[in-house]
Amino acid sequence: MQFRQSTISALAVAILASGSVATPLGARSNDSESHTGGPTSTLSTVTIPIPTGAPSAGATAQADGLSKTQQILLSDTRADALNNVLTDDKADFVFDFNAKRVASPPGAGGEIVTANRKTFPALTNQGIGMAVGFIKPCGFNTPHIHNRATELLIVTKGKLVSEMVVENTVVNAEGKPRNIMNTIEEYQMTVFFQGAIHSQFNPTCEDVILVAPQSNEDFGVSQVANNLFGLENETLRAVVDNAVEGADVDKFRGLISTNVALGVEQCLQTCGITKRK
Q: Annotated region Disordered: where (predicted)?
């Protein structure tokens, strides 16, 4: 026991001696250092690494076949992701919604362009995403939910009618589901809670632009009608109390647009837009 104590004391003296030379002025230990028990870890806590700007060989080999989002998720630190993956100041950090419109298949009434961690990898692990909507006259962004995010919607051009139904127990004075409905004018904002059914409609004959930040970089979207009619016919008939016959189910499937569809008949007439058969 005496020999062990002497050895430890000698080690401590040696460590302190080396530390007095190598440790920068003003550096002090912290709780994280005490878990490592060695001089190397103590010194590393006060040393600021200087990046070389060149990806490491290991990082390059690991990147084979992986998307940028996957590489970021596998990076040891955020600094590694920036040094080895997000290396282009413009391509990796500027998202052009106008350019992305070309690749986004529009519905009949407009289109929604989304920036999430797949389309804009710099958002990975940042807890935020964005959608920009270009809604044509009488365009209707069909009822949908965002699986993993709360949305803020800001109208930057024109005006929209917004609707939101939150959940089963949120009811109006008549005991029916409460529909929170508002007209959102230019530079006004509303909120759609995570998982709440909501939609937007352009009641005018002018194009509308909306900007919608999301509280998750992988916010998801589920069009309610499309996915309801994705159920088996027997299940769907049970849901609607057999009001829809089997033959009609397939008909309804074909009539539902995937994203943004034309809405409200009065708007179509006002704007001189022919209703499709």
A: 25-60
Query: The pTM is what?
Result: 0.70
Q: Do 177 and 137 meet the contact criterion of CB atoms below 8 Å apart?
A: no
**Rounded to whole angstroms, how far apart are CA atoms 72 and 98?**
26
Q: Which helix (H) or strand (E) holds 183?
A: strand 180-184
Strand 197-201 and strand 160-165: pairing? antiparallel
Q: From the centroid of its chain, how far is CA 82?
A: 20
Minimal CA–CA distance to 95: which of 135, 146, 130?
A: 130
CB atoms within 10 A of CB 15: 13
Q: Tell the CATH superfamily of the 97-271 domain.
A: Jelly Rolls (2.60.120.10)
For 61-104, the pLDDT digits (tens) are 456 799 999 999 999 999 999 999 999 999 999 999 999 987 55
Residue 97: closest CA among 18, 156, 43, 159? 156
CA–CA dist 107, 184 (Å, integer): 22
Nearest one of 168, 169, 164 to 151, comparing CA atoms: 164
Domain locations in the chain?
2-44, 97-271
